[in-house]
Structure formats: structure tokens, C-alpha cells
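Forwarding the complex inputs:
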Amino acid sequence: MAGTAHREPARPDLAVSIWRGDAGGAYADYRVPQRANQTVLDIVTFVQREIDPGLSYRFSCRVGMCGSCAMTVNGRPRWTCRTHVSKVAKNGRLTIGPLANLPVIKDLATDMAPFFQKWQAAKGVFSPSKTRHDAIEPIKPSSPERVAADAGVECINCGVCYAACDTVAWNADYLGPAALNRAWTLVNDVRDTGGKERLRAVSAAGGCHACHTHQSCQQHCPATLNPTASIAGLKRATVQAWLKGEIEP
Amino acid sequence: MNAYLSAHRASILWFAAMAHRLSGIGLAAFLPLHFLALGLALRGEAALEGFLRWSDMGVVKLAESGLVFLLVVHLLGGLRLLLVENFSWRSGQSKLAAGAAALAGLVAFLFLIRVL
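Prediction (whole assembly, two chains):
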């Protein structure tokens, strides 16, 4: 590379601390060269490929679609593939840890099983009312139900909202923003038949009524969704169902 | 790891939720003292009068204005939550929460001016 024109101005190395080990681990310090348009995922990848091949982390698409690369960056849960270092580094320092509120497997990889178990517990699975032999049901995009479902349907299940939620931290049974947001999209899916069972599931202990309306989920959601609004919708729907005698208190 | 896990709490709405809880605890703690003070009347006029004279002190009036703040911020915070949970979603919740805190502060300040 000697003699090759290098247009990037010289930048000081970043001081990066990365969590190593399981829940009882500690931060390890690394020096990583700064580059233009560098993402936090680029930093982690550099450390693993150039400094410490034993570093474990999770990623896939690198373009904000798959939701697998979420980590805690300087104390805030973020999708790392779409988080530019220039926006989050403080005085040339980055501290990168695993997502909070989930068991740490190793380093930056968390066990997402509790997250998806709660997704299942909130009856986040579509219950079809038709078979493949029936005609496709026309849904008007402007219908109130479709508008409500549209508002929450782009969740990529990255776990950022779950990690940002203090109700999850304080109440191990709380289903969490992503699972409840998913339930709300299905409550508004007119093709779905699991409505009452779903409302029973989300109104039980640890369900939507446990939400403290911190709106941390909305504040941190990388897809700019508002799970708090979905949870508020579930609160209304479950109370209405209870008043009609459709679900038990 | 915990040292860097609190940055996500730096939001008005997180503090609004905490203020709602703490003001509720504060008001609940005040109520027995309030009834205890009223109960002094059962012991006679002198006992209650003595307490009322004691409560004329500036520092007690300052504490009373704090109590007014707790009451108003809890009332307005509760109304905001009832709006969120019983009506269609409205954006701008941070502004509403900040407005509730500001209004509570103003009412407490006006109360303090009036009683001092």
C-alpha cells in the first residue's frame, strides 16, 4: 500500500471496551483504527478479525433487516449495523456490551430464547381463519384495523425494546414490548381467529397492564415503532373484552 | 457492566413515571400524619392550636408547598396515564409530562407565595 494515495485524514484510534465472558465477565480494552462511515458492528468485526478471534457476537444482514446485531453501546441498546461510530463515540471511547435483560451466552451474544418464549406466550402466532384453498381476503389499507396493524408490523425482533424496558428488568414475567406489539398487530388482523385467547394471554399477570408507560421501547426502537401505543391499545381492548364478559379479570 | 446500563433511562417519560410513583408514596406517607394532626382536635383546642402555630413556621410552609407539588404532579400524571390508556394514542407525551411537572411547580410556587 506504500505510495498509494490515502484520502482519509489521520484519526486517533478509538478506545473500545468490549464485554468478554458470560454474566460474570468483564470489559476488555482494545484500540481500533477509526475510519469514515464506520459502524459499531464494523468495530466489533475488526476486533474479532484483527485482534481477538475468540470474540463472540451475532450479526447477519448488516443492513438493518435481520435484527440480530443489537448490543448495548455506551449504555443504550442499539442495532449496531446501522449505528455510526461518529454519532455515539464519546471522546473517542466506545463501550460495547451484550443486550440487557437477556442471559449472556458469551461476550456480545445473548440468549434470545426468553424473548421469543414470551413472544409465544403472548400468542404471537397467526391463527388463520381460511385455508390455502380459499380466496385471499381483501383488506382495505385504510381500514382502522389495518392502519393499527401497519403501525406495528415492521418489527424486526432485534430485542432493543426488550433491553431498554425497565419493566422487563423489574418483572421477570413481563412479556415485554415486542411480544405485546406483535399481539396488538394480530388483534387488529381481521383474518385471525385467536383474538379472545390472545387477549386472555396479554391481560394475565406480566401482560400489557404491567407496562409503566416509560416509552423507552418507542424511544429506542430502531425501526421507529411505538410499542407503547400498541400496549395501550391492548389495555383498551382487554378492558373492553372484560366489560363484555369475554375474558376473566 | 451495570455502570453503562443506565443511559437508556435519561428520558422525561422515565422520570415522569418515577415522579408519579414517588409522589404517590409521598402522599400515602403524608395521609396518616394528616389524620394524626386532625386527631389532635380530640384532645382539645389547645393541642390543635399548638400544632397550627407550629405549622406557621416558614420551613413547614415550604414543606407544605412541596406537598402541593406532589399532589398536583400526581394528579396531572395520573390524568395523562388515563388519557394514554383509555383513548386513542396521542404523540407528544414528553411535552405533556414536562408540562404537568411545570404546572405542578407553578402551583406549588403560587401556594408558597400565598402562605408565606
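The radius of gyration of chain B is 18 Å.
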